[in-house]
């Protein structure tokens, strides 16, 4: 009984972690950017969805949240990331750290703005489906099942996009060898725009689902970014399947700890696993060196 | 030209110190109370700059070292009544030991991986403080039986003196032959190794020095406040502030970190009427500096004048 409960809850939480981390890893793989405003964009999507759901209903709210994350990801790219990448006064070997610092500051600005406009108390987005489904004797909110299903649908759509379409193959090529891609006549700028657009959608879906499943508050911004960062490093920077694998490891480890030991310790085993893996195998589960 | 630059920096720092020393004559107790933590904060930022600007390592966990120093000193004082000097020595030693324990595995990694391990170290330390709440005081905080001094002026000059000495030591180190090798290791580790320098050894030494000053400043700050809580010493937000201060003041300048730290603390205080939005304003200014003048306050100043 408890085992099944852990299995189900862990599955949903991990799917959510995975979706959140996939966008993060995609951006890194294709354009080498570690976007530390990730958590802030997720919480924005959740907060907008919550605020709009009052007037526009659950679906209107969810769409609004998605749109806000999409817009915000472009603002992040055009106002913060691209100016740093193009700046002549920043030496190229230091671009990475400047992007880290810049997106970190940008994330703090978003976080404070959310706290100012919508307070720091956690908001739970109205679920798209209400009600409870019984799976093998375990009462599970239907919304939890929908969350897992939607996460996997989004990840599946991403896989199709990358492997089956011309634009997606260009993305893949950019992550392997950007120089080669430009030599073949592709505009790298457009590839980057595409990846930020995909990122916006993924992070928007993840944010809205997170808000409906666990609730989201501007205080969570740092934790969300840190957990996406850890999952991505654990799985191997830039590897989408690696991130999913890592998301499931961390998701289940946390759920197990929360159920069997104590909810207040849920982060600790995952952190220790992370340090151990990074130490023994710095490239992560499926990362390239 | 190099020496001209250096001497201008030297005279500038001296003038700044003189101004700061004369400040209590005009400033009220409130402003003095704002500046004292800012001086310790400046030491945090300078030690971070040694790692970032010179060793080329992004340490996301400056508060791991600070927290070890602060809590190490606080706990032995509160539990065993060791008194201020011994407790500070213990806290500093703990921070150095923790720094070595963190750096040995972490320095095998580079770039984002190193950053992540240091970040995780902070999260783990914060969890430990909460889990062992009966020893550490947990989220509520630990109160100490001793303080440095109850006199504002004494605290002020002590903090200022400590900052000046730490700054001088770190600056001298960064301009010494060892500091130059460290800088080479940070900028091009492969070439530095090819020249016969032991990159790992120099980076480890930088980490130890950074841990020493961070831990010492943390331990002293704990005795200024008389309390320790995760929110003031360990929280990631504190680490972020330190990073912002160092980058804002000008990376690779050591002294610039002081400007950044004092600016951040004072700006936070001046903008306090804005409430939550003061953080927004400070972050926006910092972001603007990074985008428009990535060399930071001091870097821009020195570079422009030096070039002209």
TrEMBL record, chain A:
Protein name per its UniProtKB record: Branched-chain amino acid ABC transporter permease
The terms describing its cellular component in GO are: plasma membrane
| UniProt-listed InterPro entries | ABC_transp_permease, BCAA_transport_permease
The UniProt entry lists membrane topology as: Multi-pass membrane protein
Q: Name any Gene Ontology BP term.
A: amino acid transport
Coiled coil where?
none
According to the record, the segments passing through the membrane are: 6-29, 36-53, 59-81, 97-118, 145-162, 193-216, 228-253, 265-282
State the Gene Ontology terms under molecular function.
transmembrane transporter activity
**Which family does the record assign?**
Belongs to the binding-protein-dependent transport system permease family. LivHM subfamily.
**Principal cellular location given in the protein's record:** membrane
| Sorted UniProt keywords | Amino-acid transport, Cell membrane, Membrane, Transmembrane, Transmembrane helix, Transport
Q: Which CDD domains match?
A: TM_PBP1_LivH_like (cd06582)
Mention any Pfam family matching this sequence. Answer: BPD_transp_2
Automatic annotation (TrEMBL), chain B:
| Membrane topology value | Multi-pass membrane protein
Q: Which domain of life is it from?
A: Bacteria
Q: Where in the cell is it found?
A: Cell membrane
Q: Where mainly found?
A: membrane
**Keyword terms:** Cell membrane, Membrane, Transmembrane, Transmembrane helix
The record ties this protein, via CDD domains, to: TM_PBP1_LivM_like
Residues annotated as transmembrane:
88-107, 114-133, 153-173, 204-225, 231-248, 255-274, 280-303
Q: Which GO terms describe its cellular component?
A: plasma membrane
Question: Which GO molecular-function terms appear in the entry?
Answer: branched-chain amino acid transmembrane transporter activity
InterPro entries, per the entry? ABC_transp_permease, LivM-like
Stretches assigned to coiled coil: none
- PANTHER family, per database record: HIGH-AFFINITY BRANCHED-CHAIN AMINO ACID TRANSPORT SYSTEM PERMEASE, HIGH-AFFINITY BRANCHED-CHAIN AMINO ACID TRANSPORT SYSTEM PERMEASE PROTEIN LIVM
Name of the protein: Branched-chain amino acid ABC transporter permease
Upper classification of the source organism reads: Bacteria, Pseudomonadati, Pseudomonadota, Alphaproteobacteria, Hyphomicrobiales
């Amino acid at each position: 009984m408890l085992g099944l409960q852990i299995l189900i809850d862990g599955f949903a939480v991990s799917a959510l972690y995975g979706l959140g981390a996939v966008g993060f890893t995609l951006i890194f793989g294709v354009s080498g950017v570690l976007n530390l405003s990730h958590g802030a964009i997720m919480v924005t999507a959740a907060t907008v969805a919550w605020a709009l759901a009052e007037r526009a209903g659950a679906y209107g709210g969810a769409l609004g949240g998605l749109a806000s994350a999409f817009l915000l990801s472009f603002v992040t790219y055009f106002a913060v990331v691209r100016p740093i990448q193009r700046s002549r006064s920043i030496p190229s070997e230091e671009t990475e750290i400047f992007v880290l610092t810049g997106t970190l500051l940008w994330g703090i600005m978003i976080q404070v703005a959310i706290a100012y406009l919508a307070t720091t108390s956690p908001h739970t987005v109205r679920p798209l489906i209400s009600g409870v489904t019984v799976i093998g004797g375990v009462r599970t909110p239907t919304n939890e099942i929908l969350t897992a299903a939607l996460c996997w649908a989004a990840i599946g759509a991403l896989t199709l996009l990358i492997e089956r379409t011309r634009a997606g193959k260009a993305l893949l090529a950019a992550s392997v060898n950007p120089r080669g891609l430009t030599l073949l006549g592709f505009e790298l700028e457009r590839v980057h725009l595409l990846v930020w657009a995909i990122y916006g959608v993924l992070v928007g879906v993840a944010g809205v689902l997170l808000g409906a499943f666990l609730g989201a508050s501007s205080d969570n911004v740092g934790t969300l970014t840190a957990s996406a960062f850890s999952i991505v490093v654990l799985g191997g920077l830039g590897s989408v399947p690696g991130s999913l694998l890592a998301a499931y490891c961390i998701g289940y480890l946390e759920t197990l700890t929360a159920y069997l030991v104590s909810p207040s310790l849920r982060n600790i085993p995952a952190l220790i696993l992370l340090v151990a893996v990074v130490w023994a195998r710095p490239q992560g589960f499926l990362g390239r060196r | 030209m190099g020496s001209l630059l250096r001497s201008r920096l030297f005279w500038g720092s001296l003038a700044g110190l003189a101004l700061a020393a004369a400040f209590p004559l005009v400033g009220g107790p409130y402003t003095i109370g704002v500046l004292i933590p800012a001086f310790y904060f400046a030491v945090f930022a300078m030690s971070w700059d040694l790692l970032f600007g010179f060793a080329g390592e992004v340490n996301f966990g400056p508060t791991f070292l600070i927290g070890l120093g602060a809590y190490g000193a606080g706990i032995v004082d509160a539990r065993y009544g060791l008194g201020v000097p011994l407790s500070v020595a213990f806290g500093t030693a703990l921070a150095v030991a923790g720094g070595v324990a963190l750096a040995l595995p972490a320095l095998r990694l580079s770039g984002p991986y190193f950053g992540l391990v240091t970040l995780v170290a902070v999260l783990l330390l914060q969890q430990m403080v909460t889990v062992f709440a009966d020893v550490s005081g947990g989220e509520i905080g630990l109160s100490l039986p001793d303080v440095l001094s109850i006199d504002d002026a004494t605290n002020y000059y002590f903090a200022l003196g400590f900052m000046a000495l730490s700054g001088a030591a770190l600056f001298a180190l960064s301009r010494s032959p060892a500091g130059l090798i460290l800088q080479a290791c940070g900028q091009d580790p492969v070439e530095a190794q090819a020249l016969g320098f032991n990159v790992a050894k120099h980076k480890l030494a930088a980490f130890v020095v950074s841990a020493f000053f961070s831990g010492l400043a943390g331990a002293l700050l704990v005795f200024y406040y008389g309390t320790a809580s995760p929110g003031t010493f360990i929280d990631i937000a504190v680490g972020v502030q330190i990073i912002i201060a160092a980058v804002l003041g000008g990376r690779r300048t050591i002294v610039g970190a002081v400007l950044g730290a004092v600016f951040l603390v004072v700006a936070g205080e001046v903008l306090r009427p804005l409430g939550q939005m003061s953080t927004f304003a400070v972050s926006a200014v910092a972001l603007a500096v990074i985008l428009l003048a990535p060399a930071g306050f001091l870097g821009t100043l020195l570079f422009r004048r030096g070039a002209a």
